[in-house]
Amino acid sequence: MTANELETLIAHGLQCTHIALEGDGRHWFATIVSPEFEGLRPIQRHQKVYATLGQRMHTDEVHALSMKTLTPAEWQAASGTSA
């Protein structure tokens, strides 16, 4: 899977204001900013992302995905930019 394919899958399933991906096609690190994360604990945020990927996590299309999941306000505070 390419970074563009993975980004498209995530963006299709979540309203995202920012997605950044790094990886080698099997192992990925994603920074995902979404207003849908508002009020959710980190595990709940990750579950939302995993839900967008569905079976791809189970069929090894995406072997490993580490994430930093932020709300737009958290992203702005952390990076000093607007989401």
UniProtKB/TrEMBL annotation:
SUPFAM superfamilies named among the record's database cross-references: BolA-like
Identification of the protein by name: Acid stress-induced BolA-like protein IbaG/YrbA, predicted regulator of iron metabolism
Entry-linked Pfam families: BolA
Coiled-coil zones: none
Similarity section: Belongs to the BolA/IbaG family.
InterPro entries documented for this protein: BolA, BolA-like_sf, BolA/IbaG_stress_morph_reg
Organism: Lampropedia hyalina DSM 16112
Gene3D superfamilies: BolA-like
